[in-house]
Structure prediction request, 1372 residues.
Amino acid sequence: MLRFESDYMEGCHPAILRRLQEINLDKNVGYGLDPYCESARSKICQACGTPDAQVHFLVGGTQTNMLVIDAMLRYNDGIIALETGHINVHESGAVEACGHKVMPVKGRDGKYDIDALEQWLKAFYEETTAVGIEHYVMPRALYLSHPTELGTLYTRRELMRLRELCDQYGLYLYLDGARLGYGLMAQGGDLTLPDIARYCDVFYIGGTKVGALMGEAVVVTNPNIELTRGLIKHRGAMLAKGWLLGVQFDTLFTGDLYLKISRNAVDQAMRLRRGMELKGYKAYIDSPTNQQFFVMSNNKMEELAQKAAFDYITPAGDGHSVVRFATSWATTSEQVDALLSLL
Amino acid sequence: MLRFESDYMEGCHPAILRRLQEINLDKNVGYGLDPYCESARSKICQACGTPDAQVHFLVGGTQTNMLVIDAMLRYNDGIIALETGHINVHESGAVEACGHKVMPVKGRDGKYDIDALEQWLKAFYEETTAVGIEHYVMPRALYLSHPTELGTLYTRRELMRLRELCDQYGLYLYLDGARLGYGLMAQGGDLTLPDIARYCDVFYIGGTKVGALMGEAVVVTNPNIELTRGLIKHRGAMLAKGWLLGVQFDTLFTGDLYLKISRNAVDQAMRLRRGMELKGYKAYIDSPTNQQFFVMSNNKMEELAQKAAFDYITPAGDGHSVVRFATSWATTSEQVDALLSLL
Amino acid sequence: MLRFESDYMEGCHPAILRRLQEINLDKNVGYGLDPYCESARSKICQACGTPDAQVHFLVGGTQTNMLVIDAMLRYNDGIIALETGHINVHESGAVEACGHKVMPVKGRDGKYDIDALEQWLKAFYEETTAVGIEHYVMPRALYLSHPTELGTLYTRRELMRLRELCDQYGLYLYLDGARLGYGLMAQGGDLTLPDIARYCDVFYIGGTKVGALMGEAVVVTNPNIELTRGLIKHRGAMLAKGWLLGVQFDTLFTGDLYLKISRNAVDQAMRLRRGMELKGYKAYIDSPTNQQFFVMSNNKMEELAQKAAFDYITPAGDGHSVVRFATSWATTSEQVDALLSLL
Amino acid sequence: MLRFESDYMEGCHPAILRRLQEINLDKNVGYGLDPYCESARSKICQACGTPDAQVHFLVGGTQTNMLVIDAMLRYNDGIIALETGHINVHESGAVEACGHKVMPVKGRDGKYDIDALEQWLKAFYEETTAVGIEHYVMPRALYLSHPTELGTLYTRRELMRLRELCDQYGLYLYLDGARLGYGLMAQGGDLTLPDIARYCDVFYIGGTKVGALMGEAVVVTNPNIELTRGLIKHRGAMLAKGWLLGVQFDTLFTGDLYLKISRNAVDQAMRLRRGMELKGYKAYIDSPTNQQFFVMSNNKMEELAQKAAFDYITPAGDGHSVVRFATSWATTSEQVDALLSLL
Prediction:
């Protein structure tokens, strides 16, 4: 079975496993206070161009979203997300479990329609100010994914506009980078890590989907966001052997490994896309990253499913469906070729 | 200033105040264990035709919604509401403060479009079952208001269909009756208190907006919903002098007072509507209850605002707006006539 | 049956009921934005000598404690209370329901042993700083009741020392004044309302037990504590007809009514105490306020229970028990005389 | 520097790392639905003699305690723990973050004094039933650690008595087995894994401290406890690459590896203890497990601290302190000998 159903099906990059092997019987202090975490933090700050940022290593994406959002919001604060945003639909209410409301707005191609968002904010503040804001969940942060759930990317100009909107309405800007590497290495993407660090108040660099066994690195550039160690422990999210995360990110941020292996996923995705377009399949959306969405006849889909695993997304009408193939840092040319040979 | 901006601007029906006066210096046990609460519970059960229902008296509507929903939901359960539902937009995230997600769906005229809801549920279960329900907030209850936020009513047949849908998908059906009396006495409404008790798992009979100083009577007909006294206290919602609520509901449910005074609000609303239609104003929606919505030119609106208070709702285009006038159990013919004379 | 089992068994002072009667059919804006609340806030600020304090009116004591504490604490913050503190044992976990830990310490006579508390704080900070404070709930506030659960009082000097300790350890000082009037009017008590406002960051003036139908007035003197209207609504605690609370506190803070009626409770308690001591009963604790605790033989207790209601507190050994009699603003000399005649 | 300050300073048993290496580039389904988790569950059920138990793999101990307790409690339920219990003092209020109160009681040698506990329960129910249980946090579960925080063990007879108490008072019995292996292999311990599974409603088998990189295996034997996958996700605790936990526990429960490596820690601890006793040090408590507590002069302590790391616990008076040395599955004879040579 060829497996393309997600980008977190393998373990980790071999260089990480080697280092874990090397230090396996060394004794380390716990809870992220070890030298590996220290070194990884320093390298990440350097890569982001933000020497004073706080960096925390957490185990998974939902946990990270939950904690960052809990650190940003209070009282009747809420966070704006797309209706299709990961925190709104795929995290089992983890944000609400911390007492906060996700405020869904409509988007396009997995991204905010910034003009529409601006109108929505304007109307929301007019209404709530008139009635009395105490009756409303008031937005205090804006959540976006980059790359998005549909593999698309924000441009530098778009992120700047979102930053301006956030400044205007007193919102924190939070970028979920579960697949950040695949966005940074996409052709045509113009957002760099320092750009993201400059425009966002907080974001995370995904490890689970980009080369690590597990782990996400949260970068807090706005010191008003107190993502404290106490809060992390309070939500059961502090890893005892924190150096396991430190070693992984230290490896990924040594010699551009994070970007190099991200590049592979993008390259393989582009090969897959070109191959499929040659065979006459139509892309459902123009994704320059590791997730590729195609329209496929239901017959073909069922036939393919005998030999390859992929994600069913949604009906496309007329006996067709949208399906998703995800590549990863570990995807090989052979795997993509084998998939293409089935199509 | 003539005031029609809401239906909870007066104190309480004089009969209630008389009884509070009579017993003011009597000594009563606290926390709702007094004979007045006992008597009121019994009268409410009788009026609902549900001798075994549990009845709790709470102070306000948001508190009541929060507690009922907290009692119904657990883990990653959510509650479905209209996008315009009170719990979704006007309660400052009180449901989320208890850790639960409100799941908004689109409606029409303040009501569920039941066919659309059925499709939504079907699609939701198909998707989530395929992916793994643990990643989703799963609906466990359905919230509706009757009368709705737009003054409209569900029919008996509609409530039966919602009940069937709830049975099919394992949902509790919860009816927010903040203005229930005004629905029960509306012309053309065919839902009775026993109907509501039969089709819903839990609902509340509003007092704050219908004759009481404060107070809502929650009626739990499904014994699986454990709205315990401990939970009420746990959320800071147990009134020390619980008899204050008992006396009020006991008075309202003696000799049909609740229905009689509700009738007045509806009658005055109908007089207002006929008067306005005679003057050429167009109803924005066909509401048979105490809230009346009209389209009015912005000029007229500003002029009227000098002498009367009412609610601005939304722009209606072309220099017009939608405005709301609310009558109550205490509204007099003189007040309505005075308002009409300004129009 | 003579009833002395608690101090919240009657309705409200007749002057309050008169005013509620007078304005019953007036129309008021909701949610505490009415002129009665405004006037009451102003009178309370004046009585406290704190023109800039924020004053909120809430319905009950547990709700008030829950909200004030939720406003003070964040992340892994906790609040110190006596083991016997109301929030620790009698509020059904309402503080924990908001995600915060109550940190119990031992006291004496219902009060903090300030030397012991100082030692406890010192030891706690030494241990937690050594291990890493992120593993601990860290105290951020100190809770005390005045009068205490045992009717005792803090002196001005004691409150000053607690203030100093709080300053030293970065704690908010919060005083629960459910029975505050009875403490202010106690003989020998030297703490005034302005003292309390000066030394505490936040406190509340109890209405439910001191003359009101219901209601507590929270006074926030430290502007860093953001007890916002949004938070109040978020926890389901905002009363729709907020003026009901405003009118009550406005009445109580007009012409010293609050203090005058508190005085009555204390006077009757003192009469009761003297009477009982003359009959040979021994006070269990030296309470100068409206709660009086005595040691009584179990035989006498059972006999008395036929004709009078009171609270059983705890065994006293040797066939005796500790019992409590509570007077209130409404207790009459006749009631006390009748009780004494049974003893 | 010789390091004996905790038992989670190394990575994992080499056999685990080998297997992670072998399967590193295989593709697995996520979220614990992989064959490794399946196999590990089956082996654990067999080792526990409970074929129908539910087994969940979680990442860490605080997370596990938080989730198990959240699954057991509702409304105003609480969980009883020792004052020194891990959930009460070392988990940063993670239980309270889920809305539940930890109810501390006094113990002895890190264990419940079962007679005292019985008295406490009896008195608690008498008081609360008299006053009204809705005002109290009511215990619904009992938490214990085995081995305890002081390295001591419960006997089979003691666990049976706790089970009886729990049955009598309607409590779930929950055993925190963060160091369970070290208890199972202790000399003189008579509790087996099947015993624990029989007497407890839920418990966990610690991996983080016993041979794994990270991970705890929760075993739920009482089907009334719904520790659902949805709840795990709702609290941000579902590991994307769940097979990482499955592989580890599958390895540990193949060929008794878990017990064998636990045995090493106990053996080294006993060697350390005998060696120290020969040198005249006195054990602070009689611990048969991997944590050894000794009384040491402060001078010696400071001298030793130059060359060895260990835990300071508490003052012992007279210029002495209590210190702790922890061995682990990875501790070697050479390390213990080197430590002894410094003493």
